[in-house]
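Two records follow; treat each independently.
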Amino acid sequence: MKDIIALQQKIVPELIDLLQKRYTIMRNIYFNQPIGRRALSHQLNMGERIIRTEVSFLKAQGLVDINPLGMTITKEGEELIENLKDFIHELKGLNNIESLLKDKLGIEKVIIVPGDIEQDPMIKKELGKSAANYLKTIINYDSIIALTGGSTVLEVANGMPQLYSKSNMVVVPARGGLGREVEKQANTIASILAKKLGGTYKMLHVPDNLGKEAVKSLIKEPDIKDVVETLKKADILIFGIGRADVMAERRNLPQDIRDFLVRNNATAEALGYYFDKEGKVVYATPSIFLTLEDLKLVKNLIAVSGGKNKAEAIVSTCRSGNVQVLVTDEGAAFEILKIV
């Protein structure tokens, strides 16, 4: 396979470019179907004429359907998208990059999805699907899965197929979160994933920005105490990684705390902890239910994060020792290589 790809890249590189372009078009139709040509053109930043030409070809091959509602992918097209994933991965040499990053970051496994979230938002769905596929290989019938909130972790739950109608699995939120964007909160995501796994879920009705004393008081409540005790037994933890400055603003931290983070060179936020470039904890939000000692007992720590602008944050979090498996995109991967 590698030899064939190398020959193709030398002799007919334009065919490789065309393959990647058509794969990108098909994948975007799949994740947005039904979608019109103009909307697809805008999303991919391609001219409508190019989209029209390529879609006409794909329709002639029986891979795309066009109807009054927009374009959709046929069953054959879906199968082709799935089969092309490994080929595109090999084509871009991402297997070698995964191995290199694994060694450089000192973690157990790296999974790279082709593309860059910052150029193609649909890559986030691919990240979620890849993480879900990995999750399928490690779950047991009685696994306890903890997860945080956020749009990327939401795509992990969305990317999981319906595996079982009933199981003993339990999904539990690793963070609280009452407020805006309920669909991206850990409680909501836990319910989605639990249904896909045929398991049950618990909810943690605790605002994310509570003070220490309020957290101490709440944790004594029987319902919350039960959830936290289950959380601490988790054998799998799925979480996102964010930039410290972005997450501090999003979580509406007081200005004095934000200034403190800047003075102490915080670069990353994950699981309520803010890390500097070396992976040292600079600040921890009061509403943390998994301590650093608890994290050491979790068998599978899976971080899912992509985009060039998060490269430094990803490196910092990996250096903290709280990542075993990293699922990221091509854009972040190559940026990380420049750092490490």
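The next record belongs to a different protein.
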Amino acid sequence: MQQEGIQQIAVVRLSALGDVCHAVAVVQAMMKLYPTAKVTWITSPLEARLVRLLEGVDVIEYDKKSGLAGMFTLRAKLKHVIFDALLHLQWSSRSSVLTRMLKVKRRIGFSLSRSREKQNWFVNELAPEPKGYHVLDSFLSVASVLGVQGVTFPCQLNLPEIEFDLPKSYVIVNPCGSKVEKNWTLEGNRAVVKRILEKGLTPVLTGGPSELEVTFSQNIESGIEGVLNLVGKTSVESMCTLIKGALLVVSPDTGPAHIATLVGTPVLGLYALSNPKRTGPYNDIHNVVSVYDELAEKEYNKPVRELPWATTVHDPKAMQHIRIEQVLAKLDTLI
């Protein structure tokens, strides 16, 4: 059996947090198929905090800032390990070079249709064509070479106890993405917060500690009573627990939206820059409010079905095209 011949498995996915969420689901499915195998996951420091919630994974951090010196340190650390298989789940050339620091028998990468930055030069086995359009389906296609057929949600994560006093019923509003272009409007977020309050629920604002996110969240809650603002006050680990307890997460395309999928919380996604069929909340594509199709067709003068898989919209004001009434109408169906 294939399982008997595979006892050491390496996974390389450094970032970003949302993509690592997709990879967590795939790796957990693989671990169920190979319960005796040792899994070593190389990832970035922030994402490592999420991966460590997955029991049974040996997590090794690689900081991109360390460059080649960090790669050579990694090679020295793992010089005595021969991996039976490596899942190369990142499209970057940096990650491809990193994989060459490891001794590996089977280097498995994406199919040619999904391969980018010459990833196929660094592997010796290619995945079959993915069965779906989503990024997670691409990851799953790589793992399918080892026999993994599907993923299940919610994932089994070792979540910490929450350190906040929370209301019984709350909805998370995560207003900021990894780039400011992903953020929806101030007026739109305030309208969502008010609607949540009208439903007798508590809106909880979440986000990172950057000055932009803290200021934006303060402007959202300004003059509105009953909002719990936790922006800048949560770790990756506590964010997972916080999201698991929520009724719903309202968010653009960013980490917390995909954490919600991992822990089984519904998501109302707000999309304009990327195709939600490719990067949306995996179990809640039907709950996405998106203007991607119309903006992409306007920018490229082609139907979306004729555009390359990873095509994005470049309009810096794309998110402003999402109308408040669209989002409130979808919100009313979910809470």
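Discussion point: The domain at 2-144 is CATH 3.40.50.2000 (Rossmann fold). How would you locate this feature using only the token line?
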